[in-house]
Amino acid sequence: MQTSFTPEQLRDPDIAESNRILRTCVHCGMCTATCPTFLLLGDELDSPRGRIYLIKDMLESGRPATEEVVRHVDRCLSCLSCMTTCPSGVNYMHLVDHARTYIEDTYARPWPDRAMRRLLAFLLPSVWRFRVALIGASLARPLARLIPGRSATAERLRAMLRLAPAHVPGPSAMERPGVFRAQGPRKGRVALLVGCAQQVLAPSINEATIRLFTRMGYDVVVRREQGCCGALTHHMGMRAAAMRAARANILAWHDEITREGLDAILINASGCGTTVKDYGHMFRQEPEAAAAAAVSALALDVTEALWRFGYRPTREPPGLTVAYHSACSLQHGQKVTAEPVALLRRAGFAVATPKDAHLCCGSAGTYNILQPVIAGRLRARKLAALEALKPDLIAAGNIGCLTQLSGGAVPTVHTIELLDWMAGGPQPAAGGAARGA
Q1: Phi, psi values for residue 220, rounded to 5°
Q2: How many CA atoms lie within 13 A of 203 on its CB side?
Q3: Given its phi and psi angles, is residue 80 left (phi above 0), alpha (psi -120 to 50 degrees) or beta?
Q4: CATH architecture entry for 173-307
Q5: What are φ and ψ of residue 269, in 5° steps?
Q6: Are both 7-106 and 312-434 of the same fold?
Q7: Going edge to edge, which strands form the sheet with 350-352?
Q8: Of 309, 224, 235, nearest to 278 (Cα)?
Q9: What are 129-133's contacts with CB under 8 Å, separation 24+?
Q10: Strands 188-193 and 350-352
Q11: Confidence (pTM)
Q12: Which CATH architecture has domain 312-434?
């Protein structure tokens, strides 16, 4: 693709990077075949190729973003299926991230939209604020159907209440900062990103992770200074907030690397993993560039780490069929596809994969709140494909997907909870439901 940025524009490192990405695109259109929004809506501007043209024109002109550009970029899930499909290696992720920051800096959103985004950016990255908000939302869930109107704000408020769990778990003692010591001879040392929203929604995921790795002989470090990975604000174009969150993690983990060393930084929410693995790019122009690159190099999804460290089950096969949902951030963002399925099979589960496994479930961070109608259609499509397999359980490696797919006919559970169970940990609640316990 030909571009026409001026020499002055190209002195901006973000513009220079976007120019490089744009010039990689050859207009082939193969991305349209695997783009969930194009398949649903049939509009070229809701495909990666269409959005690339809109972003190119916006950046080259230097003008503020228009309503048309914002509407179509907002509809992008950042599922990155297009990157898996693209034969030319177009880094759409970095391009759309830059576009979102540009939009945030130049476009005046309607006040209800602006207020909703600021509310999500205020609540979700904070464990205590999110917990308080969820408790309130869980009490207000029955009122969702009473919210009138078909406006975007009404749809979003109803979506927020529908997504709230009926019961909010209490804080977990296993997430307190400190070092959880290996059982038996120590084989190594890992850090764990305990995250933000996941801590509140499903503390059992971090508990299973810590139990399993300590039983395998690894010290698990939880640093006090760490927090949200920055993905939630990053994907809303709020660069300063995202960089603050990421910087805190980088400094904490790099200190751990230089003091006592780490064999890996474990990520058990794949949406976070895609962002942490991209810290090196995000901080390429920052003083922390070297530390960020070192952190990114050590970041592993928990299934990558378990495969590398030699996971072995200790229990007899449970006789359950698991429908494995491969989160977009894992299969497209990190290219981790084989390990989760291989580990589940090693643990004794029969594993089935659904039709169109490459398509998004509609969660995508805050997408199922900000674009609830499209997200709802994608959820229905994904659940139908998973339930057609007649599984006992649906497993996934991302809290957003698990929340999005919950409430269907089949219980949902994080992959790590099943692997922990089969290696000596407690049976997860979903496992008991599947076995009729």
Answers
A1: -115, 120
A2: 13
A3: left
A4: 3-Layer(aba) Sandwich (3.40)
A5: -125, 110
A6: no
A7: 350-352, 321-324, 393-396, 412-414
A8: 235
A9: 130/196, 130/197, 130/200, 131/168, 131/171, 131/200
A10: unpaired
A11: 0.93
A12: 3-Layer(aba) Sandwich (3.40)
Residue 353, token pair as written in the block: 């994969």
Count Cβ atoms below 10 Å from residue 2 Cβ, excluding itself.
6
Token pair belonging to 14: 């973000």
What's at 302, amino acid-wise?
A: V
pLDDT one digit per residue (tens) for the chain, 437 residues? 899 999 999 999 999 999 999 999 998 989 999 999 999 999 999 999 999 999 999 999 999 999 999 999 999 999 999 999 999 999 999 999 999 999 999 999 999 999 999 999 999 999 999 999 999 888 888 777 778 888 888 889 888 888 888 888 888 887 789 999 999 999 999 999 998 999 999 999 999 999 999 999 999 999 999 999 999 999 999 999 999 999 999 999 999 999 999 999 999 999 999 999 999 999 999 999 999 999 999 999 999 999 999 999 999 999 999 999 999 999 999 999 999 999 999 999 999 999 999 999 999 999 999 999 999 999 999 999 999 999 999 999 999 999 999 998 999 999 999 999 999 999 998 766 666 54
Handedness of CA 224, 170, 126, 14 (dihedral sign): positive
- Can you read off the two tokens belonging to residue 131? 């917990």
Question: For residue 268, what are its two tokens?
Answer: 């058990």
Residue 256's CB is within 10 A of a number of other CB atoms, namely 22
Phi and psi, residue 414, nearest 5°: -75, 140
Token look-up 């080259």 returns 60
First vs last C-alpha separation in the chain: 59
Report the topology of domain 7-106: Fumarate Reductase Iron-sulfur Protein; Chain B, domain 2 (1.10.1060)
Q: Indicate the domain borders of the chain.
A: 7-106, 111-163, 173-307, 312-434
